[in-house]
Amino acid sequence: MFGNFTYCNPTKLYFGEDALQGLRTELPRYGGNVLLIYGGGSIRKNGIYDEVLALLREAGKTVTELPGVMPNPTVDKLYEGVRLARESRAELLLAVGGGSVCDYAKALSVSVNCREDPWEKYYVRFEEPDCPTLPVGCVLTMAGTGSEMNAGAVITNPGTKQKIGHVFADERIMPRFAVLNPRYTMTLPHYQMVAGIYDIFNHICEQYFSGEDDSTSDYLSEGLMRSVIHSGRLANRNPQDYEARSNLMWAATWALNTLLSRGKSTDWMVHMLGQAVGGYTNATHGMTLAAVSLPYYRHILPYGVEKFRRFAVHVWGIDPAGKTDAQTAQEGLQAMESWMRELGLVMNTSDLGVTPGMLPGIADATIVMGGGYRRLERDEILEILKESMQ
């Protein structure tokens, strides 16, 4: 491991079939006005809404509802939430839904008292909040993003075709508490479930494919990846397998609660490519990652052969005997591709709505990160995007 680092994660988790009862402990700690944030209404159909609302009423809260948070929350929806939070004098933002709803709540937390345009301040200039923020709690209904235990918030601007994430530096932006009941994830459509599984896996990859030092984080990552591969297969065969779904939910949290990134560099170029694709197509996040991953990893493999070889051997069980390091590394990516196809992931951006005419704009919208094995030039980004369409 290298460098100096600070690690702090203040989010309190309640996990398991009785996790929602944690609200009885948490709600009394906050003021009386709660903004209840959720998505398209599925929580009303599956009963989660009624359970949460009953506990809010039991705690004597005044509840204002903010429904309709979309899978890729928009800047206009953020402005709407700011107005509603101010009007209701919200003292707690309670997000009930998947990662997008949790992301949205954190973006709202830093925007309600902001005197500037939050898009310009947080997503163009990438500044940190200098205003009071609101506490966030999450009741999670989808495993994948890890948003329940980090300070990241992704917002989309349809006008500029930009989908941008800001990981805030202050741990106060992290949810104060999160409720994780694996049963809440079992009503998801198969498409959303497998997209979440790959989102988990890629979060780990983004922190793994960097550095050549002997990092404890990489050993942790390999164990988590093997768990996701195994449980992903089980859940794909039987989405009602509670053990598989609980392991996936727990792995999702640990994949992106900042632990794995401590003491090492990280990449995040798959996310930058995928988010740029999402800005143009509004496609499901996990599927955009799946569609660009292999073209990107095959492009950078020559610059990080040693780690890709380790990935093949330690994660996929590839036998390196009689093979060059490059051959072993390639077999690892082939094994990864087979698993992705087994899950039923979207494997090219054409199926997500990308057309050749979009590629220059997507390339221009791709934020270039420098933590991986190669800092990409624009022509390389274009080549990777072209490969991703096939």
Describe the structure.
It is a single chain. By secondary structure, the chain is of the alpha/beta class. The chain has two domains: 12-185, Rossmann fold (3-Layer(aba) Sandwich), CATH 3.40.50.1970; 190-388, Dehydroquinate synthase-like - alpha domain (Dehydroquinate synthase-like, alpha domain), CATH 1.20.1090.10. It is 47% helix and 11% strand. It contains 15 helices and eight strands. It has helices at residues 22-26, 42-45, 48-58, 75-88, 99-111, 118-124, 190-208, 216-237, 242-255, 269-281, 285-300, 305-314, 325-343, 359-365, 378-388; strands at 12-15, 33-38, 62-66, 92-97, 136-140, 152-157, 162-167, 177-180. It has a six-stranded parallel β-sheet with strand order 1-8-5-4-2-3, sandwiched between helices. Helix 7 (190-208) runs parallel beside helix 11 (285-300) and helix 8 (216-237) runs antiparallel to helix 9. The longest helix is centred in the middle third of the chain and has 22 residues, at 216-237. The protein is globular. The model has no long low-confidence stretch (mean pLDDT 97).
